[in-house]
Design brief:
By secondary structure, the chain is mainly beta. The protein contains one helix and eight strands.
Length: 142
Amino acid sequence: MEYRRFENTCFVRLDKGEEVLAGLLAVCRRENILLATVQGTGTIDDATLTVRYRRTLEKKAINYRGDMEIAACTGTVTQKEGGPWLHLHMVLANPVEKFCSGGHLERAMVGLNAEFVLTVCPGQVQRAYDPKTAIDRMQFEG
């Protein structure tokens, strides 16, 4: 992994075999990033995406393996338990195999290369578990 920060924007390159969430969290910790938006692109060869069913609150995961492009990746960095917390959604695709699937990102291993941009925002937004939704939701004070 390599990254460069330019004022409130951080460009991150993750390399083959690196895990996306772990790499981005490492950058957030080093740079003390506690509130940001995230965008990404690149290749993934092993990932787990989830969906939460609103009626039952059940969370289901599916694993994907193979040659996949990140067709879209967006999300946020907020705070939970005093540190950075990532909430990312990713769409994975392989147009040759006519495959496309997206969901909440639980884990993704970089295939060849992945690039992310973190846009750092002033302020703080905390996360707290909400039993009504079974989700760690943003909490706004004042």
